Automatic annotation (TrEMBL):
GO terms for molecular function: oxidoreductase activity. Keywords: Oxidoreductase. It holds the Pfam family Aldo_ket_red. This is Aldo/keto reductase. SUPFAM superfamilies: NAD(P)-linked oxidoreductase (SSF51430). Residues 12-277 form the NADP-dependent oxidoreductase domain. InterPro entries: AKR_Detox_Biosynth, NAD(P)_OxRdtase_dom_sf, NADP_OxRdtase_dom. The keyword NAD does not apply.
Length: 292
């Protein structure tokens, strides 16, 4: 969501050449899956991806939209004949799943998307949606995209249990809390204009509602010493096809994130400290929900 025209919500990287450098670094680490959405940077993220001709570069784009939106607009935005992985960005709770699935079936039969994913659904909605897919003979979603990280595990075990039951992979966003868990912020610290925690922007207000509270600040303070000595425990599984969605605001940012992900497993004391940090946040009810 960080690529896009300057001035648009969520956009952080505006120069196409800089975007290309970031993509080159990403690809050099052996990755080719990109994540987007129709709403990111007011539609200009997909505009940038089209201008970068990412399909010709061998990238596969997953994108998201809301159930009531017109599918053709998505294809036009990316100048694509087919979306490799298409997500419902969130459930439409005003429309029966039967109706949503029947509309998706028409798009799938026309070849407009290959694989289906869902995002920000509750565990019960995942089960009901998959039942509707089976009822109408639509290939069920193979991926769920949702919120999860070392200090926000609201999805475990409720959602993860359902995903395993449905044989769905879990693609997580916010692995570092939108940058909050890097440890540079405090209750009193100023934030960069346009950043994810800028209180003057809608996105910043949403991220502050998610993480900006004493429970998270206190948990991070306790983690700093042990994390500094070691340079994340989770319930994800390579065998299940789970993945981590990372963002970036610069070439240095993406390169460091990828190198960190390629590192060895963390030692037991770090895992124990992360477990304790999560439990301290959970105990006071400060953790955000995993769904909309």
């Amino acid at each position: 969501m960080t690529f896009g025209e300057e001035g648009n919500e969520q956009a952080r990287v505006y120069d196409l050449q800089e975007c290309q450098k970031i993509l080159d670094i990403f690809k050099s680490h052996g990755h080719d899956e990109l994540d987007s959405a129709r709403m990111y940077a007011d539609g200009t993220t997909e505009k940038y991806l089209k201008r970068l001709n990412i399909e010709a570069q061998g990238f596969k784009v997953a994108t998201k939209n809301f159930p009531s939106a017109r599918f053709q607009k998505l294809l036009d935005a990316l100048e694509a004949k087919q979306i490799p992985l298409y997500y419902l960005h969130a459930p439409d709770r005003e429309t029966p799943f039967d109706d949503t699935v029947q509309a998706l079936k028409k798009e799938h039969e026309q070849g407009h998307y290959d694989r289906l994913g869902i995002s920000n659904f509750t565990a019960a909605e995942v089960a009901n949606f998959c039942d509707a897919c089976k009822k109408h003979d639509l290939p069920p979603p193979s991926v769920y995209q949702g919120l999860y990280n070392a200090i926000c595990r609201s999805a475990d075990p409720e959602l993860l249990t359902e995903l395993r039951k449905q044989n769905m992979s879990y693609y997580i966003y916010n692995p570092l809390g939108g940058g909050f868990f890097v440890g540079h912020l405090s209750n009193e610290s100023p934030v960069e204009a346009g950043s994810r925690f800028d209180p003057k922007r809608g996105q910043g207000q949403a991220y502050r509602a998610r993480y900006w509270n004493d429970a998270y600040f206190n948990a991070l303070e306790k983690l700093k010493p042990i994390c500094a000595a070691n340079n994340h425990h989770n319930a994800l599984s390579n065998e299940k096809g789970d993945a981590i969605i990372i963002g970036d605001s610069s070439t240095n940012h993406i390169d460091q994130n990828l190198k960190d992900l390629e590192g060895p497993p963390l030692p037991t004391p770090v895992i124990d400290a992360l477990d304790h940090a999560w439990m301290s946040v959970k105990a006071v009810g400060a953790a955000p929900r995993y769904h909309f």
